[in-house]
């Protein structure tokens, strides 16, 4: 890859409250963090590394040929972790864009990872992310499903105006399920992690609102499906079934 290719960083830690040790949970014969790593590598868009403070995660990734960067244990969020990792891996600041790929997205498709870069072709965009259209009432009303409210820009693109756990926007028309994958311009990430938590961020428990409240621009690529995140034992079993099926069909 060239020096100007994006860097994909996968933050991972062991201290998940609902599913302790989940990065190492076995899914279709591989630790979950390695399943995510494989999808990032298959995207073919840049260097990939796992950013962690856990020796167990580092050992698992290295044993499967992946790159690891060790970070501090006191980071409040994945964004802070990848900012430290970015400076360690690229101290000369030659990487213009960094992708923050959550380590609990084992079913994400490689092309979805690449799709997050499209909005950054517009120099006015600071941060890019993904969403998929909501098709059920349960998804619309579920507070665990984050909705992005945005202005359509044509095709498969929105300019984000707000993110919320509420059912929004009101009235007839599509609603969109936000997918927590981000591509940051490097200066935007530096600015973001330097900002204090914002009032709406604290109220909604959504970190990305900090950027919007600071006047940063977030654009959204609309994709066709939401990758299955793993937060609970039931999510883990679903991901296992999905990837086992893909392995058999492949």
Structure description:
There is one protein chain. The strands form two sheets. This protein has a five-stranded mixed barrel with strand order 7-10-8-9-11. A two-stranded antiparallel sheet has the order 2-3. It is α/β, with parallel strands linked by helices and 250 residues long. It is globular and about 50 Å long. Helices cover 33% and strands 25% of the residues. It folds into two domains: 1-106, Spore Coat Polysaccharide Biosynthesis Protein SpsA, Chain A (Alpha-Beta Complex); 109-226, Alpha-Beta Complex (Spore Coat Polysaccharide Biosynthesis Protein SpsA, Chain A), CATH 3.90.550.10. 39% of the residues are buried. The chain contains nine helices and eleven strands.
User: Major sheet: size, sense and barrel closure?
Assistant: 5 strands, mixed, barrel
Poorly predicted parts: none
Global shape: globular
CATH domain class name of the largest domain: Alpha Beta
End-to-end gap: 27 Å
Please state roughly what percent of the residues sit in beta strands, choosing from under 5%, 5-15%, 15-25%, 25-35%, 35-45% or over 45%. Answer: 15-25%
- Our Rg estimate from Cα atoms comes to 17 Å
CATH superfamily of the largest domain: Spore Coat Polysaccharide Biosynthesis Protein SpsA, Chain A
Which bin fits the share of residues in helices? Answer: 25-40%
Q: Main sheet: which strands, in order across?
A: 7-10-8-9-11
User: H/E series, N to C?
Assistant: EEEHEHEHEHEHEEEHHHEH
The total strand number stands at 11
Q: CATH topology of the largest domain, which one?
A: Spore Coat Polysaccharide Biosynthesis Protein SpsA, Chain A
CATH-derived architecture of the largest domain: Alpha-Beta Complex
| Global mean pLDDT | 93
Q: How many domains make up the coordinates?
A: 2
């Amino acid at each position: 890859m060239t020096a100007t290719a994006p860097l994909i960083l996968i933050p991972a830690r062991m201290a998940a409250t609902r599913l302790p040790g989940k990065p190492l949970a076995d899914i279709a014969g591989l630790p979950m963090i390695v399943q995510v790593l494989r999808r990032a590598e298959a995207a073919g868009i840049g260097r990939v590394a796992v950013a962690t403070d856990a020796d167990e995660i580092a050992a698992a990734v290295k044993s499967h040929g992946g790159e690891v960067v060790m970070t501090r244990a006191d980071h409040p969020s994945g964004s802070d972790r990848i900012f430290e990792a970015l400076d360690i891996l690229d101290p000369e600041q030659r990487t213009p864009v960094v992708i923050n790929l959550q380590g609990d997205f084992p079913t994400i498709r490689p092309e979805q990872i690449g799709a997050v870069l499209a909005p950054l072709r517009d120099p006015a965009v600071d941060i890019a992310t993904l969403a998929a259209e909501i098709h059920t009432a349960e998804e619309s009303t579920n507070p665990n499903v984050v909705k992005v409210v945005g202005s359509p820009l044509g095709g498969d693109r929105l300019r984000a105006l707000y993110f919320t756990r509420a059912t929004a926007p009101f009235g007839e028309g599509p609603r969109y399920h936000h997918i927590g994958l981000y591509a940051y311009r490097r200066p935007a990430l530096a600015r973001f992690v330097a900002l204090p938590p914002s009032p709406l961020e604290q109220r909604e428990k959504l970190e990305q609102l900090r950027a919007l409240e600071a006047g940063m621009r977030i654009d959204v690529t609309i994709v066709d499906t939401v990758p299955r995140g793993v937060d609970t034992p039931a999510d883990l079993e679903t991901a296992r079934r999905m990837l086992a099926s893909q392995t058999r069909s492949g």
